[in-house]
Design goal:
Keywords: Nucleotide-binding. One of its GO terms (molecular function) is ATP hydrolysis activity. With 395 residues, this protein is α/β, with parallel strands linked by helices. 36% of the residues lie in helices and 18% in strands. The chain is built from twelve helices and 14 strands. Strands 1, 2, 3, 4, 5, 6 and 7 form a seven-stranded mixed sheet that branches. A five-stranded mixed sheet has the order 11-10-14-12-13. A hairpin with a 2-residue loop joins strand 3 and strand 4. Helix 1 packs parallel to helix 8, helix 3 packs across helix 4 and helix 4 crosses helix 5. The chain starts with a strand and ends with a strand. Bound molecules: guanosine-5'-triphosphate.
């Protein structure tokens, strides 16, 4: 299993630039974990501080790569195409769009913060980026509401027989969103509603759909084009608006990330993705050098281009995932060390991790060790981000 981060956004916001920059990586040949012929799916990487230096060894990653103690762990990035203009006028979201959305564990909504593209992606002035955020949230809520209503229908038609509970029917109908009956029950009660759809009015259903959407489809806003004054002018207005408190914003310049990755590829600069600075290693024409200095100003001010930051915040904060290294204190006989680093759901236990590695390892689970502290940990122990865990099996 590997996580999928879905990239969404209306046309011309810089989604392609973001996607291309994030998936363009100088990865050693053969180190790609996913083979795909789907151009809308790419390999991106999230940074995790490597555990190897703590053991005074060098890691040998199976997938991704590691530079100066920073491990680049592969994750899937899906370009969710088709946030179509006019969708809000009743056409609704396209099928492919919904299929892609269904599969995405977390969304990064790329928003043009300059306000210079309208809802259709055409050039304009003074467009409020909040409209884009509302637009996508409303569309998602309508989609969820539709499914919620189908669940209510199902309940009313008595599909589950006499002993039916509304949360069971809703969970069944919403199985693609990975939410169970218990969690649905919690949401209903948290909204002060009864577990009886006959008592829900339209506003209640909308609130319920929205709450389930927020819980099951975490979303982060990549405030793009922040290298421009227009975008910077909008930043405060939008991010400090209390109506958007439920969202996390990351300032991004997809353009800067793409330029730095290009420079790296051409061998004219040294840039490690996500870093706050880079080194120019070639003599460049004046114009190009000046352009890079502008980018330098941006990355030093904003702590990076924001592309890596957006992906990592989406995965590790919005989704709450953790990265875990399977391993031992010492390299193997063949010199390999900490070859893997896996991204797991929040709350994963030592036993979950064993099953994640292999069914046989899960079935034969005897005990696990926290390699750092050398303490034995039980099957039910919840793991933390960056744990190094060794599992002992009966076979
Ligand atoms: N200033 C600035 N411009 C950017 C940035 N990212 C993208 N752009 C520009 O925005 C325009 C649209 O970028 P694309 O990446 O093609 O946008 P898109 O959202 O994929 O658009 P479609 O391909 O039309 O769906 C291009 O002119 C880019 O050069 C950025 O970070 N800063």
């Amino acid at each position: 299993m590997s996580y999928k981060i879905g990239l969404v956004g209306k046309p011309s916001v810089g989604k392609s630039t973001f996607f291309n920059a994030a998936t363009m990586n100088d990865v050693p040949e053969g180190a790609y974990p996913f083979t795909t012929i789907d151009p809308s799916m790419g390999e991106a990487y999230v940074r995790v501080d490597c555990a190897a230096p703590e053991f005074d060894h060098t890691c040998t990653p199976n997938h991704g790569y590691c530079t100066d103690g920073v491990r680049f762990v592969p994750t899937k990035l899906v370009d969710v195409a088709g946030l179509v203009p006019g969708a809000h006028e009743g056409k609704g979201l396209g099928n492919q769009f919904l299929t892609d959305l269904n599969e995405a564990d977390v969304l990064v909504h790329v928003v043009d913060f300059t306000g210079e593209t309208d809802l259709e992606g055409e050039p304009t002035e003074d467009h409020d980026p909040r409209e884009d955020i509302d637009f996508l949230e409303d569309e998602l809520d309508m989609w969820y509401l539709d499914i919620l209503e189908k669940g209510i229908e199902r309940y009313r038609s008595g599909y589950h027989g006499e002993d039916k509970a509304i949360e069971d029917d809703l969970a069944e109908q919403m199985s693609a969103f990975k939410i169970n009956a218990d969690e649905i029950k919690q949401v209903v009660l948290a909204l002060d509603l009864e577990l009886d759809p006959d008592t829900w009015d339209d506003a209640d259903k909308e609130a319920l759909a929205r709450e389930i959407r927020i819980r099951t489809k975490p979303m982060l806003i990549a405030a793009n084009k922040m290298d421009t004054e227009a975008a910077q002018d909008n930043w405060e207005t939008v991010t400090e608006d209390p109506a958007y408190e439920h969202l996390t914003f990351v300032p991004v310049s997809a353009h800067a990330e793409k330029a730095l990755k290009n420079g790296n590829e051409q061998g004219v600069l040294d840039y490690r993705p996500g870093d706050e600075d880079f080194e120019v290693t070639a003599d460049l024409p004046e114009e190009k050098a000046a352009g890079l200095e502008q980018i330098r100003e941006f990355v030093t001010d904003f702590g990076g281009t924001g592309v890596q930051q957006a992906l990592e915040t989406a995965l590790f904060e919005e989704l709450g995932a953790i990265a875990v290294f399977p391993g031992a204190r010492k390299p193997q006989e063949d010199g390999t060390f900490l070859q893997d680093c896996f991204v797991l759901p929040d709350g994963s236990t030592a036993e979950d991790f064993a099953y994640f590695l292999h069914t046989d390892i899960g079935d034969g689970f005897l005990h696990a060790h926290d390699v750092r502290t050398e303490r034995q940990i039980g099957a039910d122990t919840e793991l933390d981000h960056r744990d190094v865990v060794e599992i002992t099996t009966t076979n």
